[in-house]
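On clarity, I found the account of how folds are encoded harder to follow than it need be. What matters is that the chain and its backbone geometry are given together, residue for residue. The format is easy to grasp once an entry is in front of the reader. For illustration, here is how one protein appears when written out as sequence plus structure tokens.
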Amino acid sequence: MISLYKNLTKKKKKVYLNDDFVLEDFYRAIQNNALDGLHIPHSDVFYVRSAIEGRSGIRYPLQQIESAMKAEGWKK
């Protein structure tokens, strides 16, 4: 029954948070009652980005890190 419900509901556009203003964007979404389409990366994505930045000195966008993790088989 749940899978049928998911298939019948409208898919909403995801809104990705700005890398440097994650908390601010989250609170803005609460103010605007727009949490339905908000995508907040899993904490693993933040940890991996931090580890990569610490080793390479390059700060990649959260969305790019998350996409790479999914391509490598990460499932959360």
The beta strands are 15-16, 38-39. The CA atoms of residues 51 and 68 lie 14 Å apart. Residues 43-56 form the longest helix (14 residues). The radius of gyration is 15 Å.
